[in-house]
Amino acid sequence: MEPILEIQDLHAGVDGREILKGISLTIRPGEVHAIMGPNGSGKSTLAAVLAGREGYTVSAGTVRYLGQDLLEMAPEDRARAGLFLAFQYPVEIPGVNSTYFLKAALNEVRKARGLPELDAVEFLQFVRERIKLLELNEDLLKRPVNVGFSGGEKKRNEIFQMAVLEPKLAVLDETDSGLDIDALRVVAGGVNKLRRPDNAQLVITHYQRLLNYIVPDYVHVLCDGRIVKSGDKRLALELEEKGYDWIQGCTLCEPCTLTPA
Amino acid sequence: MSTALQTLEEFVNTEYKYGFVSDIETEALPPGLNEDTIRAISARKREPAFLLEWRLKAYRHWQQMTEPRWQKAVYPPINYQDIIYFAAPKTRKPLGSLDEVDPELRRTFEKLGISLDEQKRLAGVAVDAVMDSVSVATTFQKDLEKLGIIFCSFSEAAQKHPDLVQKYLGTVVPPNDNFFAALNSAVFSDGSFCYVPRGVRCPMELSTYFRINASKTGQFERTLIIAEEGAYVSYLEGCTAPMRDENQLHAAVVELIALEGAEIKYSTVQNWYPGDKEGRGGIYNFVTKRGLCKGRRSKISWTQVETGSAITWKYPSCILLGDESVGEFYSVALTNHRQQADTGTKMVHVGRNTRSTIVSKGIAAGHGQNTYRGLVKIQKSATGARNFSQCDSLLIGDRCGAHTFPYLEVRNATAQVEHEATTSKIGEDQIFYCNQRGLSKQDAVNLIVNGFCKEVFRELPMEFAVEAQKLLGVSLEGSVG
User: Fold this and answer.
1) Cβ-Cβ contacts under 8 Å, B438 against chain A
2) Which domains are seen in chain A, by residue range?
3) CB distance from A144 to chain B under 8 Å?
4) ipTM score for this prediction
5) What is the mean pLDDT of each run of 10 residues along chain A (261 residues)?
6) Which of A28, A173, A258, B282 could form a disulfide with A47 if both were Cys (CB 3.0 to 4.6 A apart)?
């Protein structure tokens, strides 16, 4: 099957400092990939480069997304083409009503897909159904985007936006950080319900515990800008059980900086 | 400078849309100011004798005064002898109806998007249009007359209702109030006059559009609005000016008087020519606006959206004299390129249980300098007075500035005064967040700016709110790929 995302030998960094040092990764429809690794290993840089954040330079490699050169696309075009980033630190936009924001976003995505824009009534119906997935209060729709939200609400709001925008590829950047176990379960439940044979998810996490709830098809361990080990979901479990020393063939860090969950 | 910042810069580099010059013949006095100029203005307007005396007195005050320099703005000295104090579009005979208005003039208003016909037909807005110094046409006068409402040019009021003019003129802004108010009092050429009798609710928004057309003219309009006991009126003021290299002076005075239980809502969308990117040309907008809540439970509400002018110096104020009277000030001020705005309000609490609200939103982009300056004064007599002030500044780019000077003078221990202030920057992270949800950079900036101004836009009459939103959009528009 045609891959959704195909990263080949990606080198990227900030201010001339190379952070990603040759990443290759292929994600096909229906797959969930997890990327694990310690702080500073390049996890969030990978998410930022995929979403097209300013300030990151790609020095080598290619990224193809649904057959297009992703790196050539503007950030908003990537989003319209169905690439969604759930932010590690969701941004507050004071004064901008969440419903208004989300409706504008959804209609941009729908326009790009050749679908008619939703009017206010249709939109509200759709959104009310989706908000239940995340067990969020409808009041949230009336509040300004992320303003006055608790840490947990912000993260759930990200997944709620994902539920509304129905991306082809969702990149979840440390969505579990700052969540207590109940919130984690709700968020993971929402993500799982959004899983379909024609979309894919890339779950970036520092800790293994998220993967108890979002079960990945593939696990990649990122260390110092490289994927040092890939496997199926058993890799995460084995990591948990045996500790990171067990990963063989990686001598990048001495002693190893990977910290078991 | 990062590319996101460059994109923001591009937004703020849009040309002034209203910079056309109308080819209308004008009749003007030669430049310069002396008692003869004032006599000439007064004679041309066939004013009653008291008004000429009033002007001359103001002029003599003005001669004793010095131009204030305390505002946070930098500009070269103004040569007051170089200004034309009176210019009027040439007409063959006095204007009786809308149809007699010079077609070129009509086209000017159409370009401004305020076709008098359209206004008349669709919006139900009564318009008094002031071009250079003369009020050109006042629509809807007849309909209003039936209710006893007087809405006309100031000149007409001086001729037809001299008693009302004499009774109220200068009672809120005395001729010697300040340098520019004194200048205005001496040379004001026209403006709007509105009188709403006791218990009458004005059924439509009253509107005035000002436009400076002739070169080197100053526009000194004078507006006087009186709401008798229990009356209500909502008044809209819009301003534009053509592009010119030299700076033009605009020194207006607005006086509002609300008697017992009356309410006056005064909304302004000011889009005078701001000058070019290097700060050449543009309007100096030095305006005195003040309302007197004279009676119990009266209310005066100022809402302003200031996007134009090279320099804005303006503090719409309320004197809360009547017990339980209410003053409000809602403001959005945007400065871009080299624009400088020093604006805010004064709320003077005199009566018991008086209340005031101040919401000020300053947006600075380019090299713009945006200053909020406000005074909340609670006098000894103002037992139970309350004030809430909120001053927020939004910065776009890294070469602009936002400044806040709140002055609080509280002389009564029962008063409650609250002040909140924030300064924020349109962050690259906010733009990126919007981009990542599929919104373009321009939509993102508009969204964020409009969100920032929401509390003020909410106070504008519907059609004005839409215009204001568009205006902000245009003022920040740019070429974004």
Assistant:
1) 76, 79-80, 105, 108-109, 112, 165
2) 5-246 (3.40.50.300)
3) yes
4) 0.93
5) 93 93 95 88 93 94 96 96 95 89 93 90 89 83 90 90 95 90 89 93 88 91 88 81 59 55 39
6) A173
